[in-house]
Amino acid sequence: MHVTRDLSHYVRTVGTSLQHIDLAVEGVHCAGCMAKIEGGLSAIPEVTLARVNLTDRRVVLEWKQGTLDPARFIDRLEELGYKAYPYETESAELSEVAQFRFLLRCLGVAAFAAMNVMMLSISVWSGNVSDMLPEQRDFFHWLSALIALPAAAYAGQPFFRSAWRALSAKTANMDVPISIGVIMALGLSVIETIHHVEDAYFDAAIMLLTFLLVGRVLDQNMRRRTRAVAGNLAALKAETAAKFVGPDEISQVPVAAIHSGDIVLLRPGERCAVDGTVIEGRSEIDQSQITGETLYVTAGQGTPVYAGSMNISGALRVRVSAASEATLLAEITRLLDNALQARSRYMRLADRASRLYAPMVHATAFLTILGWVIAGASWHDAIVTGVAVLIITCPCALGLAIPTVQTAASGVMFKFGVLLNSGDAIERLAEADHVIFDKTGTLTLPELEVTNATDIPAEIFELAGRLALSSNHPVAAAVAQAAGARSPIVGAAEMAGQGVCAHVDGVELRLGRPSFCGAEVLVGESASVDPEASIVVFSKGTETFILSVRQGLRPDAQAAVAALKARNIGVEILSGDREPAVRAAAHALGIAEWRAGVTPADKIARIEQLKRRGAKVLMIGDGINDAPSLAAAHVSMAPISAAQVSQSTADLVFLGRPLAPIVAAINFSRKALRLMRQNLWLAIGYNVLAVPIAISGKVTPLIAAGAMSGSSILVMLNSLRARSGSREIV
Amino acid sequence: MEILVILVPLALSLGGAGLVAFLWSLRSGQYDDLDGAAWRAIADDEPPQESAG
Q1: N or C of chain B: less Cβ packing under 10 Å?
Q2: Measuring CA to CA, how many Å separate A576 from each of A247, A329, A438, A528?
Q3: In this predicted complex, what is the ipTM?
Q4: For the whole model, what pTM was predicted?
């Protein structure tokens, strides 16, 4: 059968004669990788551009139209030792990037204006105490206005727009006091300049915008990065299917290009990417990602299969059905939608702070004006003082308090193998006090391993491993990997669903089901010991050996669970798997609370029950059946091996085999939340000091500028402490 | 104080030049890969396998 890979879905034509593809590449992390990849790809003739983006871990390729098959780039990268996946930029990511560039442009304009206005202001401040002529001062003020007014009109857009949106919806956000403060400060300064007064606040207004834009840019940069990470994860999982394009010709195409009614081939060891019905073939399928059940299900003609199930033994032809027909996935999608809606009600720390802040600031300014008028001051002086209160309370440090900590914390978490999928995940993770683990693929490793390898003579085990290389069955793959086998035995034949056999030096070797090797009796005794294990038998002539293959627990699962308990976090297992398997895992890890055979709806019910009791639940799971509960929980995490829907739903994704990143992420997020709170208190403390001075009408532009930059720098320095932290998990 | 006639436009045009340079660098995608750019500055011009021989 002829197989081709069709990547045309991902290729774009640029200009008249160039073609363009974006690839997400795994394992790029240093300058050496960058040089190797760019060198290796540029060496292909007709390639006009090969550029690595180390931040996003992607490669951009361009070549002359019609000369190359893009699949060749993926092969070339494979030779170089990198796994690459074609990548399609989502519109969500494009808009985040556009927003980031817009904010950076605003920051550039504001910073330019702040520098130039400050240069003029410093001349005025030093001139006021020496020999500056009033005409010169007015000239400098007009010059400042000339720079500051257009710059503020441009750079203030993000705040003005957001404030306008909030006001039209009859609510208030942080941008309302900011916008009012900036507009009042600029307006007042123009009026004061017309009346030849000494003080103008052009510098304060524009500096305020600059500092706030730094916070916005950092915040947006984190959003953009998490979006890029999510996009790469989607590309890594970008599911393809072998579609029949002729009677016996198949083409590997992305799922997006498959329609209902198409026929796809599902080979042994492949994960199904579509929903459909088997029309030909017999096999066993592993539905653990969908239901959590680790026992295989027998599939034959007419059996429905769902995206996410793994085909184990025989090849199947599957007719693709529309997604809505698949009741199980439709149910999961419905639960997921409900849960996601509920979660969007979470109010970020910054929003909670601003809800208190805005009315207080405006009330203070208003009372100041009233107070001064009652005390006998002129309306002009009273309003000037009121505006000074607005300027000095403008939440400069408040705007930086949270994004700076988030940026520092997400950077350090990234180094520990934790990727953030949502911006406010850090705050929510820090609050978590109850962890629910899924078992299959989360507490256990997603791959199978041989548990009794040491009981078998080494040379026999190696022989079994070499024989196993001839099979696609996942259990055989586990045996081959455990034995470190590299050279397959020549002439080995696979009996679908039974095992493999070969002849070496006249001795028959068999590896497979107990019945295939004639060892049912022998197996009867050991099967009772480990309910979760799959038993395979290796026979050499008349000798037989039993291999027990199962999903092992993650290497540090016990230590991680102990570390969580030490932090006073409740630990619980909710699994869709059978009771004996869950009990064994819970017992091995010392987890007292566990439930087996749980459906997705039950998982949500349990989470809701804990919520009502006031617990903040961290859900950690990997299967498609976990996706709704990941969304329902206060905060959620998924391993990188998780099903795509779970990974995109989870707030955080962790890499690698150990569970240590979970504990590290909790540590860093708790520290980050502490720093965020400290920063908010610092910002409030600054206001407590500055507001009385402002109310008393003694704020000069110099004091405003000094206080504003001083508090902002203090907050930024404090945020950098989020980077430090111990590497120990216990 | 006549020097202001020269100094003020000079200062503004220098600042303006900085702003234009920043906007140009932003437009040409120089902030898209900050991690990679840091390494490119110190990377060898020759591919490593050639310089090794």
Answers
A1: C
A2: 39, 15, 8, 21
A3: 0.81
A4: 0.75
